[in-house]
Amino acid sequence: MTRNKDDVLHCLPLLASVLARRYGVAVLVGGNRACTDGKTIHLPPLPIDCDDEWLALVRGFVDHESAHIRHTDFSALRNARLDTITENLFNALEDWRVEKCLSAIFPGCRRNLDWLIRRFFTELPTQAGENSPACVVSRHVLLTVRSWDVPEVATALQASRMALTALARESAQQIEGILERVRTHCPNTTATIDYARQLAACIPREPTAMPTAESSNRKNDPSSSASNREAMPSRNAEHADAATDNDSSTMTSSGSAQDTKANGADSVANLPPQLGEWMAHRLSAISRSHPSQETAVSVCRIFPVAELWATEKNKALQNSGALRIRLNGLLQAQAARRCRLGRRGRLHSGSLYRSATGNPRLFLSEDMRPALNTAVHILLDCSGSMSGEAILLARQACFAVAVALDGIKGVNPAVTAFPAGRGTNDVFSLLRHGERLTDRFAVHAAGDTPLGPALWWVLQTLHAQPETRKILLVLTDGIPNAFRPCEAAIDRATRLGVEVYGIGIRQEAIRRLLPDRHRVIHQLAELTPAMFHLLQKAFLQGDKP
């Protein structure tokens, strides 16, 4: 089965994996909301099959936040101690700068971001209270930088320019001059911070006014901008680990409180949101509206695993040797060179006599079957129900198979176990693709059976491998925490050409997931030979288990 590109690009877990590899950042699927901590991009569990608009949001959010991770100096931002208004101005400038940097390396992301910018500014209403000096300037800065890439923003920009000029003509001229310098020369985050401070200094001061009935009603209105900004966290919240300290009260400059007061506390609540905030808000809302369809992907973490006992290792090596010999013989037969006579090829002098009888098959051609080029990934269930002899035999069998496969040219093996401790969906690696094999396979049993997230993680990993053929072997004894994510992952794997096989231990649950590609073991002594047999059938028969 050939891989369908759409099956990858229209599947959120796989798309996240593709984008993470492209940009060299970590993208995790799972959690409560879309956010970034300055190191890792977090996506909420969204529907596996997303429509084009949702996928555009995912791609745009990952593009945008990857640009920040790659090109924003978060230490410089942390040390700058910007007040809220200046930070909003900084975000507008920095968003444009880092997106420009990323687009220079990956031009494709520019088209997606421009589409989202058009969508964002059609949904960005003018909120009550945005006639304050800080809001007028912030909105004008935001529209100006976005108009540089998306001309359709020009209409809204014209209105904001008129509002700015009406507010203070002299300040408007200063702001336009600063923005022109930003456009021509803004090389790094430090420069962006300096420009943001210059812009903040241009904001006219407004007198402190007593609250009016209108402003009081606005503050009590749940649809007001203040409420929306609570639902739409600022970049300061998104990058909590990278751009803030534990004591948030120390993050403002000495004059920030005065600046906020001078420009009106209400203006801070009504500052225009940025593109990243808008996308994060939309993605989080989608996740909350489809709780029954969501999926999560395991995180691979470092987990201490000891070496196998000497007796275990020796027994496994004995079994692996026999398996390797058998597999090598059969696989070599598959790739054997066959010669045949035909109408084309190299003239075979021994067959020239055929010409006298009118037989045109005088030429020798070689039929070379393709060499083995296969990635095999074994997923081992280490849940609590595997305690005792089951886990001992399972880890021994996995090591034996890994050793056997490691010695076969053209086979790239890997072994992953799950869960990595109680109460987690995490996985941990016993052998990575392309990694040198060790005997650290002494895993222990504990926790539930989060098979779905583990399958999605392995599928992401297999998809990234260069081999033309990919095989996934699942070894589990119990019922997974949820069937639907497992079924969705296996279905997606099949559509991508990944062959999935399973061994069930004492339980028939594997039959539901892999009705035609499984074996159920009721006696522990049958585990190792059954695993060997199923793997052989996977290698040699493909779709004929």
Write the SSE topology:
Elements: H1 5-9, H2 12-23, E1 26-29, E2 35-36, E3 40-43, H3 52-71, H4 74-80, H5 84-105, H6 108-122, H7 133-147, H8 154-167, H9 169-184, H10 189-201, H11 213-220, H12 225-231, H13 235-238, H14 240-243, H15 256-263, H16 265-269, H17 275-289, H18 310-334, E4 337-342, E5 346-347, E6 363-368, E7 374-381, H19 389-406, E8 411-418, E9 428-431, H20 451-463, E10 469-476, H21 483-495, E11 498-505, H22 509-513, E12 518-521, H23 527-541
Parallel strand pairs: 1-3, 7-8, 7-10, 10-11, 11-12
Antiparallel strand pairs: 2-3, 4-6, 5-6, 8-9
Helix pairs in contact: 2-3, 2-20, 3-5, 3-6, 3-17, 5-6, 5-7, 5-10, 7-8, 8-9, 9-10, 18-19, 18-23, 19-23, 20-21
In a few lines, what is going on in this structure?
This protein is an alpha/beta fold and 545 residues long. The protein folds into 3 domains: 5-289, no CATH class; 310-328 and 372-541, Rossmann fold; 337-368, no CATH class.
N→C terminal distance: 15 Å
Task: State the domain count.
Answer: 3
What is the C-alpha radius of gyration, as a whole number of Å?
30 Å
Spatially, the strands of the biggest sheet line up as 9-8-7-10-11-12
- Overall spatial form: elongated
Indicate the low-confidence ranges by residue numbers. 208-262
Q: State the helix count.
A: 23
Give the amount of beta strand, in percent. Answer: 5-15%
The average pLDDT value, as a whole number, equals: 79
Record field, number of beta strands: 12
Q: What class do helices, strands and sheet pairing give?
A: alpha/beta
Q: What's the main sheet like?
A: 6 strands, mixed
Helix content: 40-55%
